[in-house]
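Input:
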Amino acid sequence: MKDFKNEDALVLLSGGQDSTTCLYWAKQHFKAVQALCISYGQRHSQEVKVAQHIAEMAAVPFQLLDAGIISQLAPNSLTDLSMRMDEDKPADSYPNTFVPGRNMIFLTLAAATAYAKGIRHLVTGVSEADYSGYPDCRDTFIRSLNTSLNLAMDKQFIVHTPLMWRNKEEVWQLSDELGVFDIVRNETLTCYNGIIADGCGHCPSCKLRKKGLEAYLKKKSTLVEAGKI
Amino acid sequence: MKDFKNEDALVLLSGGQDSTTCLYWAKQHFKAVQALCISYGQRHSQEVKVAQHIAEMAAVPFQLLDAGIISQLAPNSLTDLSMRMDEDKPADSYPNTFVPGRNMIFLTLAAATAYAKGIRHLVTGVSEADYSGYPDCRDTFIRSLNTSLNLAMDKQFIVHTPLMWRNKEEVWQLSDELGVFDIVRNETLTCYNGIIADGCGHCPSCKLRKKGLEAYLKKKSTLVEAGKI
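Output:
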């Protein structure tokens, strides 16, 4: 990607593997980076603390927005603790972790925040490579949203999605290339059960993370053995 | 417009002239109508009470969403009471009543609410005829937003904007055609100073409303005199 070494970026940071990798990716490509964390009655308010800690380690300013309003919108298992979380995606609909319009609300709030700061670059860790069934993680949605944001605020925002076409193995590889593999492995929280680093190991999120990690470590050891890195 | 007499609509209702006219417009075109009011630290929390009263008079269900988060985003004179409101639009920028992304956030929240209710028709009173300088009132923005909403939630929402090409005079005319001229004139709150019906008379919103009203009443009396209505 072309660097924007004279411009700042705002990174949506949740404290998970993907957004943390994006934070360090942005630090490499922009003049300065700020982190925006949006809380919304997640199962684990610990996520916010993790995100803040990661921002501190990366030495970037951290801002928290409370979007509790999202819990008022529609029943889902990420905000309604009385619901059991789907282990897998139902064949005929979305998983009950689907919060309708979540990424659209997040990115619009991020753009409004960036507008006030005079920042036009937004970075988000959405990906359709390990497509979970969420329509608002797709590239086509992000492109449409980018246009809508620009029309809404009469600005030229650029939404960056460095992970869009990377599967979890490739996200691990990117964090290694950025020199932050250990930080991402040990400090991020991806697990639905709120356990940091390698997590509980059996929730859908942990399974996906672990599978990608194992694939990447295997690939890397093959390359090391062959003397290629 | 084609009627959708077998389908419901969700109307964004603020309690002002425009959204109230839209509420009655929707009652004529859809099977059933629901009102959604979004509060966000407006200057006048009275607006919410006015909106609720109007929904009761129209016999439609009323839901309130508290989007106080909007006040956290950027300084503007609608949410920050320490700021003096611009009387006119500055030549080189937007009026300081501009809340970046406001309509985008409102319509995304409305769509997420509609999604949970199984409703696909959204009605909003935005207009570019009496264009106030807000980019998120333009037709091109609404069309882009509609596409983004549909991609985000994988639904076919239809955003209706019955006032898009009507100036204030024509909005008064529409309310008369719908048989609710008196309700709109006497029960709605448009005034920035929180005075119901004809308002304070000197804020920008009152001036615009009054100018349109006088133009419509003049036109109507001409037609009446000529025996045309």
